[in-house]
Write a structure and sequence with these properties.
The protein is largely without helices or strands and 53 residues long. The chain is built from one helix and two strands, in the order ββα. The structure holds zinc ion.
């Protein structure tokens, strides 16, 4: 398996819609993702799972 992880961030921040969410290159399932725009932060699985559509 390659160690590159593809993350779908097309929805951006689920809180404010900011598409420019920084994802650490070495992130893993429990890495906290933070939106620089609104300050919303959550583990990535939760962050991106928060998208309603
Ligand atoms: Zn945000």
């Amino acid at each position: 398996m390659a160690d590159t992880i593809i993350v779908d961030i097309s929805g951006g921040c689920p809180n404010c819609g900011n598409p420019d969410v920084h994802v650490p290159a070495d992130y893993e399932e429990k890495t906290e993702i933070r939106c620089e725009k609104c300050g919303y932060a959550a583990p990535q699985a939760e962050f991106f799972a928060a998208k309603s559509d």
